[in-house]
Amino acid sequence: MIRANLLRAAAVLATLVATPALAAQCITSQGQFGAYKQGLGQQAASAGVGQRGLQALNSADLSGITWRFESNPASQSGVSQGDPAAFLAKRSGSSAQAFVSQAQSRKDRNAGLFDTLERQYGVPGSILVTIWGLETSWGGYTGQTPIVDGAVTLASYCRRHPRFETHAVSALRLVDQGAIAANTRGGPSGELGHMQFLAGNWERFGVDADGNGRRDPYSATDALASAANMLRQNGWQAGQPFGQGTRNFNVLSAWNDSGNYQRAIAYAAERIR
């Protein structure tokens, strides 16, 4: 009996030694990035990430701009701006009125698309065109940081870990699926395309609105429809107000949890016809 118990104990010990911990540990210095990638690789493989995604992780570099950005929260746009007009001016580099005028023009030029999206999802075009402008200046700048680098760096950083780790794994799955390549560029936190979706949100809410058979965050039509889909699935109520204090205003936190950002969206959208 004693020998049998010892054999069982030895078998359990062998299993524990042979099975690596799946949880990647967050890091506090850039020199730990390689170790973090190893832990994330085990986690990603367990989550079904395939060879292409794991190769993208293996070749990922720490994003210096992401690390610096996260190390200095005060540098983030609008952190100290309580007034939505001031936030819009700082974010857009012009004035709040100039931003609203540009958003109105963009909406007018794509009236059919925005009308269709509002009928289908219940989200006003004024909301969508505002977010589009705030995120990428209506597609004018979608970022220069490799998405995988940014997503993995953000997930590794202890202030952001583990909340953003699922998005890093999703970015690797998107490489597997061919939605992005290992070197596709986006925002410094791994944001994708026209609306700067985090990878996990794109996986969950992305739709093929232009009917070409693929969900493409770099297609304005797909990206806008996907943003509308995300807001609707988070509780947006069609035909209802969206000013501060309303239920629809609260839904904007699903897009960005900054109160400054939410107030800026509502402020601009209320001024767009």
TrEMBL record:
<dbReference type="InterPro" id="IPR031304">
    <property type="entry name" value="SLT_2"/>
</dbReference>
<keyword id="KW-0456">Lyase</keyword>
<keyword id="KW-0732">Signal</keyword>
<protein>
    <submittedName>
        <fullName>Membrane-bound lytic murein transglycosylase B</fullName>
        <ecNumber>4.2.2.-</ecNumber>
    </submittedName>
</protein>
<dbReference type="GO" id="GO:0008933">
    <property type="term" value="F:peptidoglycan lytic transglycosylase activity"/>
</dbReference>
<dbReference type="InterPro" id="IPR023346">
    <property type="entry name" value="Lysozyme-like_dom_sf"/>
</dbReference>
<feature type="domain" description="Transglycosylase SLT">
    <location>
        <begin position="33"/>
        <end position="244"/>
    </location>
</feature>
<dbReference type="InterPro" id="IPR043426">
    <property type="entry name" value="MltB-like"/>
</dbReference>
<dbReference type="GO" id="GO:0009253">
    <property type="term" value="P:peptidoglycan catabolic process"/>
</dbReference>
<feature type="signal peptide">
    <location>
        <begin position="1"/>
        <end position="23"/>
    </location>
</feature>
<dbReference type="Pfam" id="PF13406">
    <property type="entry name" value="SLT_2"/>
</dbReference>
